[in-house]
Amino acid sequence: MNGRERLEEVIIPVGSAQQIVRMKPVSVVMMGGDDERRRSLAEALGRNQANIVREFGSYPNMNHLVKATGLNCDIVMIDLDGDAETALDLVESICARNSSVTVMVYSRAAQPELLVRCMRAGAREFLVEPISQDTLAEALIRAAARRQELDRHKKLSGQMLVFVGSKGGAGVTTTASNFAIALTKESGKKVALIDLNVQLGDVSLILGMKPRFSVRDALSNSHRLDADFVATLLTPHSSGLSVLSAADDFVPGGNVDDGGLEKLLYILQDQFAYLIVDAGSASAMASLQIAELADAIYLVTQVDVPSLRNAQRVVSHLQSAMPEGRRLEVVVNRYDGRKMEISQENIEKTLSVPVKWKLPNDYAAVHRSQNTGTPLITENSPIAKVLLQMAKAACGKDADVPKRRFSLFG
Questions:
Q1: Among candidate residues 371, 289, 301, 307, the one with its CA nearest the CA of residue 333
Q2: I need a labelling partner for 316 at 20 to 30 A (CA). Which of 13, 115, 259, 324 fits?
Q3: What does the angle CA 81 – CA 82 – CA 84 come to, to the nearest 5 degrees?
Q4: Closest-CA residue to 311 (of 156, 165, 130, 208)
């Protein structure tokens, strides 16, 4: 949304005067079955310099809402009077999925019990009709100020770099773990690594660690999550990297809770300059709403038909799910240009995006690393060289990576 790229002086009518507020024009999604009331409110919003990006004449389900809008807006306004229970479910779902969106509800009547339920669900404003221009203007100013504060906080927070595989066995954990160590070295800043393969994650094995606590400990205590508590769960690696790994024991049905996970990720971003996420395979990541939170996603794939077919579908999904301005980088693992039956040109044609990185096929080195718990990045190998180059690019040391790197691998 272009209006988010700069601050503008917006004239807001307040009382008998006009107030000039320096803020980003707010974008609004509206929903409600009463067309006349919704359109009347839309006109009032327009007079307050709000941009209506989408109107729904009924309550959409969450999937429809996300597909239609991406929740890429500042405000969602919901009519309570059509079906209060459905409206409340939407309020709660929107707030859980995207805490940066300000949800406002409006109704003909001020019912104290309903007001309390709306606030508990996460609504920021309860507007009672008829809504005065002053009331509406002040609500918009608060929403705009909140968005500016969240944007400022986001800029101060660390970057979230997510690694995901086109299918199981793509080499995501090995790549993410060694990249995290390389980034710790190259950036000179605080870096954390989290293993979201909660049931059968291998980060601790790859790094030769025996942590006391795990991601499961964090998510099973989501009500206690804060910076101090999370700090006690992290395990330091000898490289300086901080790790929150999967548990050593297997517990069936241990699904990740999106609400607790999002809170955990925000806390880690606040504490570290870079947060590296091992998200496992794309099928495992499908239940996690992290694509819209990531600053960059590294899609790890191999050069075989099933992997590339999956990768193509994942790329298509991520391009629609990731907010504008975020990076999607394709990493081809176990690459050997002399033995590949599919050329780089055909790979890129299939994926519709360029191949950014190639990790050479070195089975012996990877096997040795996994068996000894010694990170690949500590060796002077072709794989280590590419991982270091990736880390340099991620921290801005080598943003324009020379094309000749590809000649190393065929």
A1: 301
A2: 259
A3: 65
A4: 165
Place of tokens 């160590």: 181
- 125-128 sheet: strands from edge to edge: 51-56, 27-31, 75-79, 102-107, 125-128
> What is the DSSP secondary-structure string of 358-410?
EEE--HHHHHHHHHHT--GGGS-SHHHHHHHHHHHHHTTSSSS--GGGGGGG-
What are the boundaries of each domain within the chain? 2-154, 158-409
Q: In this structure, which CATH number among 3.40.50.300, 3.10.450.50, 3.30.300.20, 3.40.1400.10 belongs to the domain 158-409? A: 3.40.50.300
Residue 11 pLDDT exceeds 50: no
Third-level CATH fold of 2-154? Rossmann fold (3.40.50)
**0.70 exceeded by the pTM?**
no
What is the average pLDDT value for the chain, to the nearest integer? 82
What pLDDT is recorded for position 254?
52
Q: Provide Rg for the chain, Cα atoms.
A: 24
- What single DSSP character describes residue 131? P
- State the amino acid at position 169 in one-letter form: G
Residues, the chain, total? 410
| C-alpha angle 121-125-126 in degrees, rounded to nearest 5 | 85
Among candidates 390, 356, 381, which has minimal Cα distance to 181? 390
- Cα separation of 210 and 245, whole Å? 9
386, 358 in Cβ contact below 8 A? yes
